[in-house]
Design goal:
The protein has 278 residues and is of the alpha/beta class. The protein folds into two domains: 192 residues, no CATH class; 77 residues, CBS-domain, CATH 3.10.580. Helices cover 56% and strands 12% of the residues. It is built from ten helices and seven strands. The strands form three sheets. Strands 5-6-7 form a three-stranded mixed β-sheet. α8 links the parallel β5 and β6. The longest helix is centred in the N-terminal third of the chain and has 28 residues. The chain starts with a strand and ends with a helix.
């Protein structure tokens, strides 16, 4: 179960949209942001990471702490949110072609998906585009400094636009996003949102209500991510690895699975991970 939080900037944006009579747009945007966040969370979980909380931001997820992630994991998780938003948009574009009448009821939702996806792909910290570049960078320290500088520049430009708009039709969204980008660029690396599941794979159990001890018999070809999905807070799992004759050749505790996930991608077959790590 994810811990949902609402960022003050999202509340400010919500109040502004309600005052402007754009409650329907607010509902659509909130749903899109939630889908964006959940895509990040599911991608992280599939790679062996857990999200401490899902924070509702004005324009999607901010991924903190992935500097410690494996390169491929960081890129995959960062892209998951925008790609999912764009996938939803493509699906609805196809539906509009098949059922044109649907456009009038879903255009705001679709355009919100496209907007949030494209905005998050900008190569400025702390947006998803910057996370992809960090994952590709050889010198993360220098790259992070540059991306944070770009974040400050874009934040300043949006704030200037916000001030300029006050003389015509004030754009509060630009002001909120300026603050969001500024705070993320200045303080974004001081907080861990993701941590590898190996750090808490056996401690986040509901021992207060009692935890059941279970043994799952699995084949050698099963992928680590499938073992990961068998874990839950109400059970303490032991994996009995069996051969083709159903003979147990090795047992694996949850902590041992966590160690394998640190050293291997989540989609690595168990047999390969065990052979690689002795």
């Amino acid at each position: 179960m994810y811990n949902f939080k609402i960022h003050p900037l999202f509340i400010l944006l919500a109040v502004f949209l309600i005052i402007k009579g754009q409650a329907i747009f607010l509902v659509n945007s909130t749903l899109v942001v939630l889908l964006h966040e959940m895509a990040h969370a599911r991608a992280a979980y599939g790679r062996g990471y857990v999200m401490n909380s899902i924070v509702l931001m004005p324009y999607g997820a901010v991924l903190y702490g992935e500097e410690a992630m494996r390169r491929n994991d960081a890129i995959f998780i960062a892209l998951a949110g925008p790609v999912f938003n764009l996938f939803i948009a493509v699906v609805f574009f196809a539906l509009w072609w098949l059922i044109p009448e649907l456009y009038a009821y879903t255009d705001t939702f679709v355009y919100s998906n496209v907007s949030i996806a494209l905005f998050n792909l900008l190569p400025v910290f702390p947006l998803d585009g910057s996370r992809v570049l960090l994952g590709l960078a050889k010198n993360k320290t220098k790259t992070l400094k540059l991306l944070r500088l770009l974040g400050l520049i874009v934040a300043s430009a949006m704030f200037v636009f916000f001030i300029f708009s006050a003389f015509f039709d004030i754009n509060v969204t630009a002001g909120i996003m300026a603050v969001f980008l500024y705070s993320g660029a200045v303080m974004g690396t001081k907080k861990e949102m993701y941590e590898h599941i190996s750090k808490n794979i056996s401690v986040k159990k509901n021992f207060y209500n009692g935890v059941e001890k279970k043994t799952f018999y699995v084949c050698q070809d099963i992928k680590l991510v499938r073992l990961l999905k068998m874990l839950n807070e109400n059970s303490l799992i032991t994996f009995a690895v069996v051969d083709n004759n159903s003979k147990i050749i090795k047992t694996l505790e949850e902590t041992a699975l966590g160690e394998l996930l640190i050293k291997n991608d989540a989609d690595t077959p168990l047999k390969e991970a065990l052979a690689k790590n002795g």
